[in-house]
Structure formats: structure tokens, C-alpha cells
Please model this.
Amino acid sequence: MRRDDPSEALYRFRVVSTAVHEVGHMLGLDHCTQPRCVMNDAEGSIKNVDDSTGELGPMCVALLEERSPAKLEPVLPKP
Model:
């Protein structure tokens, strides 16, 4: 598969990964140096996006958990 002619699946992966990356910034995450983390800086190349897992790496997950408010209890519907 050529990078300049992505399949529909690769195109969707790129769009979703980029969206997750930008939401990560909105949640206070900076660029990550952990290999394959979706928060890696693309550095002007689609290769870093294609090489990512599409998910946050363990370091970024830990940062979000550390910064998040106390775990919220699920709101269950009243019987």
C-alpha cells in the first residue's frame, strides 16, 4: 500500500488518530516521546501517524489519570 494512495481503512485511521491527538492536547497532554503513542509529534510527516497505535501510550495514560478528578461513580437510572 502506498502512503500517497491510502485505502479507506488507512484514511479513517489517520483521521481518527489525528482527532485523538488533538483531543489529547485539549486535555493538557504535550507531545510524547514514547514510540507509537498517538501523542507523538507528526513532525510534518504522515509516517508518524501511520506508525502509531492510534492510542495513548502508558505514560500519557498515567498523566491523564494523575491529572483527572476523582473517579466518578456511574449514574444509574432510577428503578
